[in-house]
Design goal:
five-stranded antiparallel β-sheet, 9 helices, transmembrane helix, alpha+beta, transmembrane, membrane, 269 residues
């Protein structure tokens, strides 16, 4: 086994560690995503006009486990995709530079062109620092993300802005990769992966996104249910959130009511 093989294998140890971290955090229910999930529940409650469920919600562990593993798996895939994109870009850039150099040497332009042309040629061969590439990508992404705000309809959900920011950031990083020095290959991949790892869970703080998650696991988000109380009377309503002690439902006048679980005989979905 040569040194290059060892180096390549060591780079892929990062996505493996990311996946293992996702499994551990999913089983433990703690960590960055677990912390955000709890406060996302509080934010969802305040946005829908009912009290903060400080007693906790039983579905949180399930949600944290699934989201943690999904996000970690996504980040591992992103790392590997970026690694291969960088390698392809660097290889193609090296090949183009070799052809360009041979062409210039064969035409003997170095002795017949002005100094300004020499300066432009030499500048184009220099690599860009990773910090410069990240700053350019970050600023450009912010500009693209806020452009929809100036459209005719300004009622654009926050996830759209975040999605545009993430996609444009990725695009600018990919387009600038051929200009980045090869020694920053792993650093660029790791930084982009961390960027997605930190930013993706922030989507939980949007009502539509969090409500959709609750609706999928039948713990709220406007799920249509029929609640049977102690008097056997059925109530057709929308379930906003279920906690350890009570449920929150919407009334006909769009007001939110809280019903303790001990007063409920049955819930049908």
């Amino acid at each position: 086994m040569n040194i290059e093989t060892v180096k390549t294998a060591s780079r892929f140890s990062i996505p493996i560690k990311i996946i293992l971290a996702g499994i551990v955090s999913a089983l433990g229910g703690s960590g960055y995503i677990g912390f955000l999930s709890e406060y996302a529940t509080y934010f969802y409650a305040l946005s829908n006009g009912f009290r903060i469920p400080a007693e906790g919600s039983p579905y949180l562990k399930v949600t944290i486990a699934s989201i943690s593993f999904s996000v970690m798996l996504l980040c591992a895939i992103i790392y590997m995709m970026f690694y291969f994109i960088v390698k392809i870009n660097l290889s193609s850039n090296k090949w183009v530079n070799k052809i360009q150099k041979k062409t210039i040497d064969s035409l003997q332009l170095k002795s017949k062109t002005p100094k300004s042309i020499h300066w432009l040629y030499n500048t184009s061969q220099k690599t860009m620092g990773i910090a410069g590439a990240l700053v350019v990508a970050f600023i450009s992404s912010i500009v693209i993300a806020i452009l929809p705000y100036f459209s005719v309809s300004k009622e654009i959900p926050i996830p759209i802005h975040l999605f545009l920011f993430c996609v444009s950031f990725t695009y600018f990083i990919c387009t600038s990769l051929p200009l980045i020095d090869k020694k920053y290959l792993t650093a660029a991949c790791v930084f982009t992966t961390l960027f997605y790892l930190i930013s993706t869970p922030l989507f939980l703080f949007n009502d539509n996104v969090y409500g959709t998650i609750l609706k999928e696991i039948k713990y709220g988000g406007g799920t249509r249910v029929t609640i049977y109380l102690e008097d056997k009377k059925g109530i057709n309503t929308e379930l906003l959130l279920r906690t350890s002690d009570s449920i929150f439902i919407t009334e006909r006048d769009d007001k939110v009511s809280e019903i303790p679980l001990e007063k409920i005989n049955k819930i049908t979905y």
